[in-house]
Design a protein that fits this description.
Elements lengths: L3 E4 L3 H9 L3 E6 L5 H12 L3 E9 L3 E6 L2 E6 L3 E8 L12
Antiparallel strand pairs: 1-2, 2-6, 3-6, 4-5
Length: about 100
């Protein structure tokens, strides 16, 4: 499994990218550090990364009530990286669709 799992394309992340055009979000491997994330993004998208910010999300406990009783579960924990590119560079996630 690689360092970068998938890019984050949500309404919140799109709003951040519109406000700061050189910032992009990625879901990354929990064991990856900032230097590994920087190298992986630069190799995959051939851009220059200036800064990497990481956020660890813990899994939340969820429960729902059904006819057969209460079902308990847990959302997966994950790590997110916000990558800042050099001024003027962009990443097009939809170019290969």
């Amino acid at each position: 499994m690689g360092i970068i799992i998938k890019p984050i394309v949500t309404e919140k992340q799109t709003a951040i990218t519109e406000k700061f055009p050189n910032r992009y979000g990625f879901r990354v491997s929990p064991g990856a550090n900032k230097l590994e994330i920087k190298k992986a993004v630069e190799d995959m998208y051939s851009v220059t990364v200036v800064d990497v910010n990481t956020i660890n999300y813990s899994g939340k406990r969820k429960s729902r009530y059904t006819k057969s009783g209460i079902i308990n579960g847990k959302q997966a924990a994950f790590k997110k990286a916000i990558v800042t590119l050099k001024e003027g560079e962009t990443i097009d996630f939809f170019s290969n669709i």
